Amino acid sequence: MLRKNHFKNKKIIVGITGGIAAYKVPQLVRLLKKEGAEVQVVMTDAAKSFVTPQTLSVLSENPVLSDFFKNTQGEWNNHVHLALWADAIIIAPAGANTLAKMAHGLCDNLLMSVILSARCPIWVAPAMDLDMWTHASTQTNIQTLIDRGIHIIEPEDGELASGLTGKGRMAEPEQIFSALENQLLPPPNFFTGKRILLTAGGTQEAIDPVRFIGNHSSGKMGFAIADALIQSGATVDLVFGSVSIAIPENCNTYGVTSANEMHQQCLALFPKCDILIMAAAVADFAPVEVASQKIKKTEDSITITLKKNPDILSELSENKRNNQITVGFALETENEKNNALAKLQKKNLDCIVLNSQSNPDAGFGVDTNAVTVLCKDGAQWQIPTASKSLVAQQLLQSLSEWLTKTH
Ligand code: PMT
Questions:
Q1: Which candidate, 332, 230, 212, places its Cα nearest to that of 8?
Q2: CA–CA distance from 166 to each of 27, 248, 250 (Å)?
Q3: What is the mean pLDDT of residues 296-315?
């Protein structure tokens, strides 16, 4: 299954404690950054004897944190905020002392206070000499941590810094990365392995060479869906109009301007797709004539005659194969549910996602959305206000459950 850049939007604290294996941690930071994660390194003073904060700061693209205070003026590194910010914490290497402190709730440095404040999943990659690893106290501490839901990435057998050979070497960065990857990625769902045609952004209908009729779509909702689909292991053909944010990576992208261009591009891609999701705001009308030169303001008023654009979603849905699924969006300002239900039927859709422009936290431009999903079999549910990224993930999760039941 293709899953690239799949740590995008994941915030990970890499905690480094004192031990020779700390020299391997820059490679772990590189792997996480390469896959799109935001990384915050928190290291103990003892760790600085084995790897420099400068190296880690450059690789993580963030200042490295060690102390409770940023400076002598009393500005502090808020461990509670740090812990809540993180989607995951990995402590590598974790020596016997750190494991004992974690098991007993000791809190004598910034890293330990972050760990105690954390609500996210925590991984530890122990590293120590073989007798320390097998010692009853270490094993009891490990069991305590497992019982509390902490993930242990077992150390490996091999040559140890002491010159002895046995179990105690920290797992290689690639293995630590895989352990995180297996747990942090969304489990496979209905979209995994499917090809999705997705539209996003707004279309622009030219009036003359410098002016157009457009709308306020930023592309945020559609692009958040693209990211969530990519994380689910889907192949995404993304057709986008005018947008105000960066275009997602790891999908096939097709930039268009007008509704007619979007229509042509979608017609070409639709036969290959399993599912169509249309989050784009497509102009319903376009000027009949486009002036070849900039229109001068010689008159007090002008009239622009508009003609209907093709309804892309209706046309594709009309011609869909039995096993093709079509999902539309509806942006409404009044009589919202009835209007959305009418579109669901008229456009022959499987589902429609209703968002309301009268809600200031939803619809065009803003970073958040709140939606109601309406399905052709009468099923319906709501996704409450949250970031467009979270709404996209919840939308796909809930659609996946409905599609699995009904297809
Ligand atoms: O991009 P953002 O700033 O994040 O905003 C997100 C959004 C508000 C644009 C998005 O969530 C949304 O609601 N998109 C659809 C807006 C819209 O055009 O709704 P509509 O009710 O006019 O159209 C219904 C459906 O038909 C839509 O799926 C639309 O893509 C499609 N359509 C509409 C007209 C047309 N000529 N062809 C179409 O395919």
A1: 230
A2: 24, 46, 42
A3: 96
Q: Specify the ligand 1 atom closest to the Cα of 347.
A: 26
Residue-wise pLDDT tens digits, 173-201 = 999 999 998 887 778 899 999 999 999 99
Whether the Cβ atoms of residue 281 and residue 217 lie closer than 8 Å to each other:
yes
pLDDT score of 332? 94
> CA 226, 9, 351 angle in degrees (round to 5)?
30
Model pLDDT for residues 15-27, shown as the tens digit of each residue: 999 999 999 999 9
Residue 328, ligand 1, Cβ within 6 A: yes
Q: Which residues contact 118 (CB under 8 A, 6 or more apart)?
A: 83, 86, 89
Angle at 197 between CA 192 and CA 201, to 5 degrees: 120
Confidence (pTM): 0.72
**Which domains are seen in the chain, by residue range?**
11-184 (3.40.50.1950), 195-406 (3.40.50.10300)
Spatial separation of the C-alpha atoms in residues 221 and 364, rounded to whole Å:
9
Measure 377 CA to ligand 1 centroid, in angstroms.
22
| Cα separation, 91 vs 176, whole angstroms | 10
The answer to whether the beta carbons of residues 11 and 40 sit under 8 Å apart is: yes
Please say whether the beta carbons of 160 and 130 come within 8 A: yes
Distance CA 121, CA 183 (A): 9
